[in-house]
Amino acid sequence: MLSKYNYNESLKRFEPKEKRCSYCFQNESENINNYDFIKLYRVKDRTNFVIYRSLKYEEMEIGISRCNTCVEFHEEDSRKSPILKYAAYLLILIFVLPAFGVKVFIAGISLSIVLFFVLHKYATKKNNPKERLTLKQGITSNETIQDLFISGWIFDKPSA
Ligand SMILES: [Zn+2]
After folding, report:
1. The predicted structure's pLDDT at residue 46
2. CA 28–ligand 1 middle distance (angstroms)
């Protein structure tokens, strides 16, 4: 199952040998630090008496190859939408601009609306690349990780 991975002794993690990005299936990954490493757990032994609870589990870290472009895409994805930032900015304008008179107010608002449409167009274009998996999709569609799930590995640290 893990034949496609190298075990990194010092970092205690499985690093994929495959360099092709698992998110866009096009680019080659240049830097292993860009890979998405996730931790998986598996319960080894659970004792559950009324007064005594103990839990032993295994832990492993496994990487999913990822190229620079996809790293940027995922980081962008997790950040707040530019539209939201813009709404906050517009609210400030509406309160501040009237102090400079009606003309400045109208000019300021019109300019902002134009900016809004440009931003909106840019945002929708950027969020829809032809074929690129989100961070979550990449993890769940990964064959090795699916196999690991079948053999009892889970995402969350088990609790006693
Ligand atoms: Zn990629």
Report:
1. 76
2. 7
Q: Return the CA Rg of the chain.
A: 24
What mean pLDDT do residues 101-127 have?
77
Structural domains in the chain (count): 1
Instruction: Return the top range by mean pLDDT from 31-40, 42-51, 112-121.
Output: 31-40
* Distance in Å, CA 6 to ligand 1 centroid: 20
Residues with CB under 5 A from ligand 1 (ion): 21, 23-24, 27, 67, 70
Domain range enclosing 76 = 5-150
Torsion of CA 157, 35, 7, 43, to 10 degrees: 10
pTM of the shown model? 0.63
DSSP character string of 30-56? --GGGSEEEEEEEEEEEEE-SS-EEEE
CA of 69 to the centre of ligand 1 (A): 6
Measured in angstroms, how far is the CA atom of residue 27 from the centroid of ligand 1? 5
Please tell me the distance between residue 68's alpha carbon and the centre of ligand 1 in angstroms.
7
Does a structural domain hold residue 155?
no
Asked if residue 12 is part of any domain, the answer here is: yes
User: Per-residue confidence at 64, pLDDT binned at 50, 70, 90?
Assistant: very high
